[in-house]
Amino acid sequence: MNLLYRKQKKSLLALTLVIALCGTVLFTRCTEDFLKPTPLSFYEPGVTLSSESGMQAVMAMTDRHLRHYWTHQENNSGHNSNPMGTEYMFSDLMAYGKTDETATGINFSVATQLTPQNAGSGENSGNSNGNVIQYFWTETYNGMKYANTIINYIDNVQGLDEATKNAYLGRALFHRAFRYYTLAFQYGDVPLITKIPSVPKFNYRSTKKEAILEMITLDLEKAVEYVPDQADMAYKGMVNKGACRMLLIKCYLATGQWQKAKEQADILIDQSGYSLVMGGSGLGSFGTWIPGGEPETWPITRNVIWDLHRSENKLNPQNTEVIMAMPNRGLASESFRQWLQMRIYGPFWNSGSIQTPDNFQAGQNHPRTNANYNVNLDLVRAIGRGIGVFRPTYFAQHSLWYVNGVDDEGDLRHRSDVGNWVKMTDLKYNNRSSAYYGQNFMLYHPETGKILCSDTVRCWYDWPHYKYWNLDVGNEANLNANAFNGATGGSTGGHGDIYLYRLAEAYLLRAEAKFYLGDNAGAAIDVNKVRERARCTQLYSTVNIGDIMNERARELHMEEWRKVELARVSRCLALSGKPDEWGNTYNIDTYDKQSGRDASGGSYWWQRIVHYNNFYNHTVQSNNRTQEYNLDKYNFYWPIRQAVIDSNREGKLKQNYGYDGYDPDTPIWETWQEAVEDESKTE
Question: Is the overall model pTM greater than 0.70, yes or no?
Answer without folding.
Answer: yes
